[in-house]
Amino acid sequence: MELTVPAVVLAALGACCYAAAARLQHSAVRATGSGETLKLASLLGLLRDRRWLLGLSLLVGGTVLHAVAVAIGPLIVVQPVGVLALVLAAVLDARQSGRSLTPQRLAPALTATLGMGAFVVLAAGNTGSALPPLTAVTDALLISTGLLAVLVLLGALSAGGRRCLALGVAGGVAYGLISVLIRLVAQRFQLSGEIDPLALLGILAALLIGGWCVQQAYASGPPHMVVACLTVVDPLVAVGMGVGLLGEAAGTDPGIAALELVCAAVALAGVTLIALRDNENSAPPGGPGPGAPDAERVFAAAHATSPLTDRTEP
User: Fold this and answer.
1) Span of the secretion signal (predicted)?
2) pTM of the entire structure?
3) Which of 54, 149, 183, 298 is deepest in the core (most CB within 10 A)?
4) Contact partners, residue 97, CB within 8 Å, separation at least 6
């Protein structure tokens, strides 16, 4: 039995946790002064940073909420709710940096929220009930592994914003895979009482790889770009696999499907505008960009005493 409304509520709460975690962990990672590549020593040092640990706690809490949401609700409804994380991240940034929430800043956030809300309403009433094939877990792992290999390679060969983008997208792919595997585990357990060990191993591997990619992305660019990648790519991967591998859109009317695509495009446009606007505002005009390690070390030293004063403007 699908519990769509509780699933959406849990996913929304999880998105709130993700937004707060992104702010805290990005601040802690930048404070290490390790430049665009987060080295092992710096990563281990984060285990003693209260900001990073608080962010990790929020991330774990958000993950648990999201896991329950995708276990009890359809992927194509639950996943798009994650776009709220980017909207909340933009609001938190404006509040902490002292910038006012002008209509120009609110418009992209409202666009993303309305587009996502309309998609969820349409998708909630048109989910299919087809059983996933036995090869769904293997197929999901193979597709995601190929995408991750390409994206991590691109990140290793890039710098600055391009590196942040590649690794942020890789994190989104990994987290999207986690949602798909959790959904498959829940479905199999409901049907047979069994748990697929391959799916569990895949979830663990995706958590580790996705977490590493996200932390490296934080070291290379602003938190808004990372959150934007996660909130766009994660749902795209999960919804795509939900439709293609799990058959969750089976029997959907073509007209409804077209409206869902339009709503998804509207939400994507809002998310893109938020990411571009916040990325432009992440460095002062004429000053060093977010990839400049020296500027970030000065920034970190000035703000290290308070976990909630991470500002993107001087």
Assistant:
1) 1-21
2) 0.67
3) 183
4) 311, 312, 313
CA angle 283, 285, 286 (to 5 degrees): 105
The answer to the question of residue 85 being in a domain is: yes
Q: Distances from the Cα of 204 to the Cαs of 128, 130, 175, 241, in angstroms?
A: 28, 27, 11, 19
Mapping DSSP to helix (H, G, I), strand (E, B) and coil, where does residue 187 land?
A: helix
Which of 55, 95, 32 shows the shortest CA–CA distance to 299? 32
Question: In sequence order, what DSSP letters do the residues of 112-162 get, joined into one string?
Answer: HHHHHHHHHHHHHTS---PPPPTTHHHHHHHHHHHHHHHHHHHHHT--HHH
| Within a domain: 148 | yes
Tokens at 214, concatenated: 């996200």
Residue 149's CB is within 10 A of a number of other CB atoms, namely 11
Which helix (H) or strand (E) covers residue 223, if one does?
helix 223-244
22 and 89 in contact (C-beta within 8 Å)?
Answer: yes
Torsion angle in degrees (nearest 10) through CA of 5, 10, 15, 16: 110
pLDDT digits (tens, 9 = 90+) for 45-87: 777 788 888 888 888 888 888 878 877 877 777 777 777 777 7
9, part of any domain: yes
Residue 90 lies inside a defined structural domain of this protein: yes
**Residue-number span of the structural domain to which 289 is assigned:** 4-303
Please name which of 83, 113, 74 lies closest in space to residue 243, comparing C-alpha atoms.
Answer: 74
Query: Which two structure tokens, joined as six digits, stand for 155?
Result: 């990140």
pLDDT reading at 123 higher than 90: no
- pLDDT tens-place string over residues 138-173: 888 999 999 999 999 998 888 877 888 889 889 989
What local confidence, expressed as pLDDT, does residue 209 receive? Answer: 92
